[in-house]
Amino acid sequence: xxTKITFYGHATLGVETDGYHxxxxxxxxxxxxxEPLKVDIEKLKADFVLITHGHRDHLGxxxxxxxxNGAKVICNTEIGDWLEKQGVHxxxxxxxxxxxxxxxxxxxxxxxxxxxxxxxxxGGQAAGFILTTHQDEKLYLAxxxxxxxDMAMIGEEGIDLAMLPIGGFYTMDPEDAxxxxxxxxPKVVIPIHYNTFDxxxxxxxxxxxxxEAETPTKVVILQPGESYDTAS
Length: 232
Ligand code: NI
Ligand code: MN
Description:
Layout: E1 4-7, E2 13-17, E3 20-24, E4 48-50, H1 56-59, H2 62-69, E5 72-76, H3 77-84, E6 90-93, E7 98-101, E8 104-110, E9 127-133, E10 138-141, H4 151-155, E11 161-165, H5 174-184, E12 188-192, H6 204-214, E13 218-219, E14 227-229
Parallel strand pairs: 3-4, 4-5, 5-6, 10-11, 11-12, 12-13
Antiparallel strand pairs: 1-2, 1-14, 2-3, 7-8, 8-9, 9-10
C-alpha cells in the first residue's frame, strides 16, 4: 500500500496514508488553480492539516476547514498560538522537532522564506516537513523556500518523494530547484508553487526533461486535481 498525493494547485496537497487524510497548506479560496475543481471545503476529508508558514496562500482556508471537520493542525508555535486564539487546536513543533502522529512521524525542517500572518503578525520561522509513513516511506514537503545547502542533509535521510517549489519570484525557480534535486536526491519529485498566476509561470515539462537528463530522479507533473500513488 502506498501513499496517495493529490495536487489541488499552487502548494495545496492532499496526502492519504494508512487510512489517514492529511491536507498540506490548504489554500482553496482565491486559489485560481484550485477554483475549476470546485472543492467543497466543508466536505473535505482531513484528519490533520499541516501548515508550512503564515502566508495567506498557505494558511489558506485552515480555520474554515478545521471548524467543519475538526481536523488537528500541525504547525509552528507562532502560527499555533494565533490559531488557538481563534479556537483552533494546534500541535506545535519547531524547526528540527519530531513527533509521532497516528499517521506517521513528522519532522519540521528549515525553509528559507518569510512567514508573517495577516496584519503583519510574526508567523515565526517558515518550515517544511519530512513525513515518515508507516510503510517507512520518506516524503519531503519543502514549503516555500529558496535553495539552501543543508538540503543535502535532508537528502541524507533518504527521501523517496519530494515536493519542491519551482515558480521563482517567491521561491526557488526551475534552475535552483534542479540544484535542490541534486542535493536532496529524491527518487521522485513533484513540482509545486508555479503557474497559479503570471509571476510564477514556469514550464514544468522543460524542467522535467532537464532534471531527468541530469539526475536519476523521476519527475511527476500533476495537474490540479490529479493524484500520484507512491505504489504506482
Ligand atoms: Ni510564502
Ligand atoms: Mn507561497
